[in-house]
Design goal:
Layout: E1 4-10, E2 13-17, H1 22-30, E3 35-38, H2 40-44, H3 48-51, E4 62-65, H4 71-83, H5 92-99, H6 101-108, E5 115-119, H7 128-135, E6 143-146, H8 156-159, E7 161-162, H9 168-182, E8 189-194, E9 204-209, E10 212-218, H10 232-241, E11 245-252, E12 258-265, H11 278-285
Parallel strand pairs: 1-3, 1-4
Antiparallel strand pairs: 1-2, 5-8, 6-7, 6-8, 9-10, 9-11, 11-12
Helix pairs in contact: 4-5, 5-6, 7-9
C-alpha cells in the first residue's frame, strides 16, 4: 500500500478539503494517493472519534498535511489512527523533534543562531533573574524572543526583538509582552536566540524527504523571492536529525554564510503562494511506507 494523505477538512463543509489545502489534495490524487479528511477543530477539542470519522478503517499509512497542532495533540492523532488500523508516517516523537526548537537544535547548533530555552506554561513568564541566566551563554548584542514553535515577528519591537541580551530588564520586558500576546497559544516555553543580520532577499524553504532535498520554495512571508542556498552542511544535519519529512528555512548572513533560521515538520509547513508542489507530492506519494501500518505509536519511527 502506498502513502496516503490526511488533510484538514473544510470547517464549513466537512465532506471537502479545507480550501487552503485543496490544490495539494488534488496533487495527491493525481499521483494515485489516497486522501482522507480530518476535523481539525474536533481534534483540538479532544474529540478524536469525531475528528477521524471520515478516515476509513485500515486505510493508512498516511502523511498529515494541515494546520499546526501541539505535539500532545499530535500524539492523540497518532493513537486515534492506530486504533482505526492506520498509521502516520511521521510518528509523534519525530513530529515533536522537528516542530519544536529544542528537538532539532543539537544537530543544527553550528548552522543556526545560538539559543537557550526554558520550558513553561502560558501565564506568568520566567523571573528576570532566570531570563538573565538563560541569556548569559548567548553573549552580548541583540537577540530575539520566541516560544518552542513561533515568534511574534509582526510585533517586532514590543514582543520579539531584544536590543541587548545583557540588559536583564530589557529582556524581561520583551519576554513579558510576548507571554501576554501569546496567551494560551504559548508552545512549550520561552526561547532566547542571538540575533544575526541577513542580507535582503528573503528566505528559502527547503523541503526534505528521507534526507534528500526534493523541493526549494520561497518562504510564505516572501513568496516573490527565492534565494538559492548551499545545502551541503544542512544535508548532514537533516540526516542526523532522523526525521523523514522536514523543512529548513534558510537565509544568507551578511558575512556570506548560509544559516538555518528554523527547522519544521514538513506536514505543517506552509507552501508559498504560487509554488508548484508537483515534485514534492510525487515524492511523498511514492515514499516507502512498508512496516508502518500496524506499528503501535509507542514504537513509531521516522
Amino acid at each position: 500500500m502506498g502513502a496516503g494523505f490526511v488533510f484538514c477538512a473544510d470547517p464549513l463543509r466537512a465532506s471537502r478539503t479545507d480550501p487552503v489545502f485543496a490544490e495539494e489534495a488534488a496533487l495527491a490524487r493525481e499521483h494515485g494517493a489516497a486522501v482522507a479528511l480530518l476535523d481539525h477543530d474536533a481534534l483540538l477539542a479532544g474529540d478524536t472519534a469525531a475528528a477521524l470519522a471520515r478516515v476509513r478503517r485500515d486505510s493508512g499509512p498516511y502523511w498529515y498535511r494541515g494546520w499546526m497542532m501541539p505535539a500532545a495533540v499530535y500524539e492523540t492523532l497518532e493513537r486515534g489512527l492506530y486504533e482505526r488500523g492506520c498509521a502516520l508516517l511521521t510518528g509523534a516523537g519525530a513530529y515533536r523533534r522537528a516542530h519544536e526548537l529544542p528537538g532539532w537544535y543539537e544537530e543544527f547548533a553550528h548552522l543556526t543562531p545560538r539559543s537557550g530555552w526554558q520550558a513553561g506554561q502560558p501565564g506568568a513568564p520566567p523571573a528576570q533573574d532566570e531570563l538573565a541566566a538563560l541569556a548569559a551563554p548567548l553573549g552580548t548584542g541583540p537577540g530575539v524572543v520566541k516560544d518552542f514553535v513561533k515568534s511574534r515577528k509582526h510585533e517586532w519591537d514590543e514582543a520579539c526583538f531584544v536590543p541587548e541580551l545583557t540588559d536583564p530588564a530589557g529582556v524581561a520586558a520583551v519576554v513579558g509582552r510576548f507571554f501576554a500576546l501569546q496567551e494560551d497559544s504559548l508552545a512549550g516555553g520561552v526561547v532566547l536566540r542571538a540575533y544575526e543580520r541577513f542580507v535582503p532577499g528573503g528566505e528559502a524553504r527547503v523541503w526534505w524527504l528521507d534526507g534528500r532535498p526534493v523541493l526549494t520554495t520561497a518562504h510564505p512571508d516572501t513568496p516573490g523571492r527565492l534565494p538559492e542556498p548551499e545545502l551541503g552542511a544542512v544535508r548532514v544535519a537533516v540526516r542526523a536529525l532522523g526525521c523523514r519529512f522536514v523543512t529548513t528555512d534558510m537565509a544568507l548572513r551578511e558575512d556570506g554564510a548560509w544559516r538555518v533560521v528554523e527547522v519544521g515538520d514538513g506536514q505543517v509547513s506552509g507552501l508559498p503562494a504560487g509554488a508548484d508542489a508537483t515534485e514534492l507530492f510525487a515524492a511523498l506519494a511514492g515514499a516507502d511506507s512498508s512496516g508502518q501500518r500496524r506499528r503501535p505509536p509507542s514504537e513509531s519511527m521516522t
